[in-house]
Automatic annotation (TrEMBL):
SUPFAM superfamilies: ALDH-like (SSF53720). Belongs to the aldehyde dehydrogenase family. The lineage of its organism: Bacteria, Pseudomonadati, Pseudomonadota, Gammaproteobacteria, Cellvibrionales. The active site is at E257. Residues 20-479 form the Aldehyde dehydrogenase domain. Keywords: Oxidoreductase. GO terms for biological process: gamma-aminobutyric acid catabolic process. This is Succinate-semialdehyde dehydrogenase (NADP(+)). The keyword Oxidoreductase applies. It comes from the Bacteria. One of its GO terms (molecular function) is succinate-semialdehyde dehydrogenase (NAD+) activity. InterPro entries: Ald_DH/histidinol_DH, Ald_DH_C, Ald_DH_CS_CYS, Ald_DH_CS_GLU, Ald_DH_N, Aldehyde_DH_dom, Aldehyde_DH_Superfamily, Succ_semiAld_DH.
């Protein structure tokens, strides 16, 4: 039973144009707790009609919101930040109920999510243009940065707050308006954020939430609309590619934060205890369901046995269970499909000679729970090598040389995050420069922070979120050429 000290955060309607509304056709969809499989609530099931209405409202709100001075927009965002933090515990409970992650992780995500709101409230006041020396003495050249306009956002279930705030906050900070489609599995955090945004003073239409299980229909309305000037998406590479194709019709700006296949490399000069600690954090956060999770663990052969021993010991201390139970460190996978996918990846490896040093199958566990698993004797022909696992499964590969580690690390179409542990300073530079990734963690397993640019290369995406760079994705540069200056 989900009880909140602020019950108004459990919404039962969509939020469009500053109003709490039902779907036009009165249909609903259900939100479930992945740990218990119990229904939490039924919500109105939005489709293209509601999405179009939200886009129209965003367009109307844009005219006035972009004229509000940056300082005033920042004040609204700071109020929103404070309200999110004031309601941290309730939001964390809501998140664990619909997403499954342990409460401690949910509390951390609420703070992480709020940090983007605070950060972009500050950054929104620091949007600068340039004065450029013209070739012609009769001219002066300056640039302005202006909001791109109406933005559409589509977000995944694995970070039900942070993936939203790091899109909505920069958009609002610079004067854009935004329509959000949250994941079907986790609409409740999105609606709670909208409720707090309403209290903070975000004007009607500037931020709408169109929740529903008709992703293709809502996405189609967003991508086909000429009013929407930008699409920002976090999710699978497959859907990201589809959305980019759909956006081509109206040449929208896009930001794509897509899948990963992160190598986690342990060199022979690494501090092995620190490497185990970093790997535990990177691999098992959110039961392995993050796009920056270590996916392939590469260990230099001279330290392989020692490292694997320490790693398996650490994994054996993890506790699987309902995330709302104190002490649980691994919650359920998000749904049956996720469970089926992770089980199949592990089965394909073990059927072909991989050895589960711990874990290996969900047999004996309830519902969607998958045990933390370490696989040895793995090779590059297996799906654990090439697929984004998105589960608590760690395949450990052996390598001989630094060159080989870099080559294997880069042997994937993805390029989001990579990690390595080493102490030799020359090696640290060589490997950092050699890895084809947007993010590299060096002697560090957790790289996420609002102050740094988050994003990938290759098929992991386009654009950066967070940091001073994240705001540029919501701005257009306009160049003003002024003639007639000379007398
Ligand atoms: N980069 C990342 O952070 C993430 C990566 N993934 C990867 O993707 C795999 C599958 O996860 P999944 O949840 O299916 O990821 P998806 O990419 O399918 O879902 C992400 C978001 O896109 C929406 N969506 C799905 N199809 C469409 C469409 N045709 N048009 C518009 N929007 C759409 C989803 O809506 P709805 O929820 O209604 O389906 C959700 O809001 C995972 O196993 C993992 O490997 C998944 C999530 C996050
Ligand atoms: O999995 C993702 O999509 C993003 C990872 C969350 C983060 O660390 O910012």
């Amino acid at each position: 039973m989900l009880t909140l000290s602020n019950p108004s955060l459990l919404r039962s309607q969509l939020y469009i144009n500053g109003e709490w509304v039902h779907a036009d056709n009165e249909t609903t969809f259900s939100v479930y707790n992945p740990a218990t499989r119990e229904k939490i609530i039924d919500l109105p099931n939005a489709g293209a009609t509601e999405a179009h209405r939200a886009i129209q409202a965003a367009d109307k709100a844009l005219a006035s919101w972009k004229q509000v001075v940056a300082k005033e927009r920042a004040t609204v965002l700071k109020r929103w930040f404070q309200l999110i933090m004031d309601n941290q515990e309730d939001l964390a409970r809501l998140m664990t109920a619909e997403q499954g992650k342990p409460l401690a992780e949910s509390r951390a995500e609420v703070a992480y999510g709020a940090s983007f709101v605070e950060w972009f409230a500050e950054e929104g006041r620091r949007v600068y243009g340039d004065t450029i020396a013209a070739n012609n003495p009769n001219q002066r050249i300056v640039t302005l940065k202006q909001p791109v306009g109406v933005v559409a956002a589509i977000t995944p279930w694995n970070f039900p707050i942070a993936m939203i705030t790091r899109k909505v906050a920069p958009a609002l900070a610079v004067g854009c308006t935004i329509v959000l489609k949250p994941a079907t599995e986790t609409p409740l955090c999105a609606l709670a954020l909208a409720k707090l945004g309403e209290e903070a003073g975000i004007p009607a239409g500037a931020f709408s939430v169109v929740a529903g299980n008709k992703a293709r229909e809502i996405g189609g309305a967003m991508t086909s609309s000429p009013t929407v000037r930008k699409l920002t998406f976090t999710g699978s590479t497959e859907i990201g590619k589809t959305l980019m194709e759909q956006c081509a019709g109206t040449i929208k700006k896009t930001s794509m934060e897509l899948g990963g296949n992160a190598p986690f490399i342990v060199f022979d000069d690494a501090d092995l205890d620190a490497a185990v600690q970093g790997l535990m954090a990177s691999k098992f956060r959110n039961a392995g369901q993050t796009c920056v999770c270590a996916n392939r663990i590469l260990v230099q052969e001279s330290v392989y046995d020692a490292f694997v021993d320490k790693f398996v010991t650490a994994v054996s201390a993890l506790k699987v269970g309902d995330g709302s139970t104190e002490g649980v460190t691994i919650g359920p996978l998000i749904n049956d499909d996720a469970y089926t996918k992770v089980s199949a990846i592990v089965r394909q490896a073990t059927n072909n000679g991989a050895e589960a040093l711990i874990g290996g199958s969900g047999k004996g566990l309830d519902k969607n729970f998958f045990p933390p698993t370490v696989l040895a004797n793995v090779d590059r022909s297996m799906d654990v090598y090439s697929e984004e696992i998105f589960g608590p499964v760690a395949p450990v590969f052996k390598f001989k040389t630094e060159e080989e580690a870099i080559r294997i690390g880069n042997d994937t179409p993805f390029g989001l995050s990579a990690y390595f542990y080493a102490r030799d300073i020359g090696r640290i530079w060589r490997v950092s420069e050699g890895l084809d990734y947007g993010i590299v963690g060096i002697n560090e397993g957790i790289i996420s922070t609002e102050v740094a640019p988050f994003g990938g290369v290759k098929e992991s995406g386009i654009g950066r979120e967070g940091s001073k760079y994240g705001i540029d994705d919501y701005l257009e540069i306009k160049y003003l050429c002024m003639g007639g200056v000379s007398q």
